[in-house]
Design brief:
Layout (H helix, E strand, L loop, with lengths): L5 E5 L3 H13 L3 E6 L2 H11 L3 E5 L7 H9 L7 E6 L5 H9 L3 E4 L4 H12 L7 H11 L18 H11 L4 H8 L3 H15 L4 H10 L15
Parallel strand pairs: 1-2, 1-3, 3-4, 4-5
Helix pairs in contact: 2-3, 3-4, 6-10, 7-9, 7-10, 8-9
Length: 228
Amino acid sequence: MTGPLRVVVADDQALVRTGFTMILAADGIDVVAEAADGAEAVEAVRRTRPDVVLMDIRMPDVDGLEATRRILTGAPGEPRVIILTTFDLDHFVYAALSAGASGFLLKDVTPEHLVAAVRMVRSGDALLAPAITRRLVERYARRDPDTSALHRDLAALTPREAEVLRLLAQGLSNAELAARLHLSEATVKTHVARILAKLGLRDRVQAVVVAYETGLVSPGGRRDTEGG
């Protein structure tokens, strides 16, 4: 993508908003609006059409989860939402990922990591490593009725695509997938792109969630490469 990177920062703490805004602005990222709750965040997104939203998960009235749902409903691809939280294994974080968020950051994130994360999701990548997402999914999969919207029919996938999805959900990177399946990384990327397209998913984070929610991968399963 070209052009300035536009961000909305939503957090009920003014100091957090100010701090994040200063960090992003110092790196040439344009914070086009700030919001103190989820309702303000939804309105700010509609008004400014940002590339990325930094969304606090716990806010009064309309929380970050509901705001994420409202922002992403009917708007595939843009904007990207990064969840802000003080807990790395939070029930609400998992629900937000299921709703379409592209990842999460802890609020004590370093300035360098914050900037890198915003730029990463703007380019279309998922923020979380699959193995981190897997920890969330294994804890919360099938426990939250709010995730039912993510259920997908995997029948559209070819056997090879289903295999790629299963291994992706176990935490393998593209390089590891390529080595395991004796494919090039370019071919793996093509398979992943087709999986996302066929299942109507935004990124690898949602693909991992779907793999667990549909039973393709069972919570508690271990990576075959662990310990080797």
